[in-house]
Model the fold of this input.
Amino acid sequence: MLPSRRAFHVALLAGTVACFGRHHEKAEPVSDIPLKVTNRNWLDVVIYVLHDGQRTRVGTVTGSSSQEFALPSRLVGQSHELALLGEAIGSNDVARTERLTIQAGQYIEWTLETDLRRSSVGVY
Done:
């Protein structure tokens, strides 16, 4: 009886090693996230990304113009969430989005209105 029990344990061990020894596919890295900001305000607006309890400056959008940015994927992090903040230069006016959940291949369009509190955002 001992040889069959030993064969059973060897087969069980070999099967376990075979299952755990397989290569698992790595998650596809998230590429940079395109961000297009249309500023309908007369003032220049500084754009920030709020992520992981931090605020990172992205750039400035001149008044009455549009600007495109590429947000580094590191700003999205594990949670895939971020928010945008816009601060008008020469004013106390600010625009802030809700938390945005970003997946691979998506992009963000943010329209800043003359009254920054009425601004809108879309993730596509």
Notes: Helices lie at 2-20. The two ends are 65 Å apart (CA to CA). The mean pLDDT is 86.
